[in-house]
Amino acid sequence: MSIQTLTNYFLEYGAFFIFLIVLLEYLNLPGFPAGVIMPLSGIWASQGEISFPLVMVLTVAAGLTGSWALYWLGRAGGDKVLGFYFRKFPKQKEAVESKIDMLREKGSVGVFVSKLLPMVRTIISIPAGMVKMDFVKYTISSCLGILIWNLVFVGAGYFFGEAAIRVLA
């Protein structure tokens, strides 16, 4: 999918497009990677197509919404979800189990740090629900981690994206 195609979707669907793609990413569902759409939304903000604060609110809200859904999924039936996940991705069993142990030990600090790590940042919500982490602490630590992660990607697009497009084009 080209940048022009994504831009056309943005022009057609507006801010909802950004929210939806980032939500899919944080739900760990297939879709267009938020790591691409967030810098692109930063470029759109730098060009005046959408405001930078609105992009940040949308991406953090989408990230938090997806994280909450996975947290509650983990809380309600995490063992079954992880059983299915491990059958599909058996090599990740050891890593996920170590994250569960880390959450029991580190709590909300563990969630915050995990939200800053690729791959782990989306899946950590299920173990957090499984260990029945306090929801308010989970939300605060998730929100802070999501804010920093998204700020890096959206900010990169805002400040460097136009130059990167010129180099790649």
UniProtKB/TrEMBL annotation:
Keyword set includes Lipid metabolism: no
Location in the cell: Cell membrane
Membrane-crossing residue ranges in chain numbering: 9-30, 50-73, 109-129, 135-160
Keyword terms: Cell membrane, Membrane, Transmembrane, Transmembrane helix
Topology versus the membrane: Multi-pass membrane protein
Superkingdom per UniProt: Bacteria
Record flagged with keyword Transcription regulation: no
GO cellular component, as recorded: plasma membrane
Ranges of residues in domain VTT: 43-158
Family as reported in the entry's similarity comment: Belongs to the DedA family.
Protein name: VTT domain-containing protein
Species of the source: Mediterraneibacter gnavus (strain CC55_001C)
